[in-house]
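Pilot study result, target chain (233 residues):
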Amino acid sequence: MLPIIDAHDISKVYNPDTIPVYAVNHVHLHLGQGEFTTLVGPSGSGKTTLLNLLGGLDHPDSGSILIEGEDITRLSANQLIDFRLRRIGFVFQAFNLIPALTARENVEFIMFLQKVPKARRDKRVAELLAAVGLSDKADSRPAQLSGGQQQRVAVARALASKPAFVLADEPTANLDSASASNLLDIMEKLNREENTTFLFSTHDSRVIERARRVITLVDGQVSSDSAALALEH
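Predicted structure:
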């Protein structure tokens, strides 16, 4: 079976013509179906940059990134937009919901862009809002929801199109302990039930404790990987 993510020798360099700074420095990373993995490391270690590269939001200066066997570094800008729309789910620290849309409409939005028939959209939205415990908030707009509720809508939106994997950048950073715990419970449940691959970037010990694999970055390089350590033992 092909890995969901197969990143080979990827680098991202800033100021290459003066004093080069490697935000990501020759990283190799393989993620399989159904993994629940987190990237950790100090600020400036390259976590968010690596997440942006894997999500096709930024382009590496070298190396290849295969998502289910397709090298996204070779896609045109328009092809990459379509690929992200169909194959990658994103959960951001700042929620990034559309203020004028209801919870239902925010979750539905990506499927609308994909031209999914309305009956299928309605069914999927209802399933996801129920899964994140927000069926009763379907008609509420983001301003009417708490931070934890907004982030749950964001998770539902990320999963709406059944992506190959979900990238979550500091998803609990703006949440209190109860909301963060609830959100992580939901993502673990969706990971088990839908076999969705999750890759987090975080400083939050609450997320790290839940992860089944922890990859540590230091100065843009992988300094440790709990999956590799487990194989050694």
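One observation from the pilot: The domain at 5-232 is CATH 3.40.50.300 (Rossmann fold). A full batch analysis is planned for the follow-on phase.
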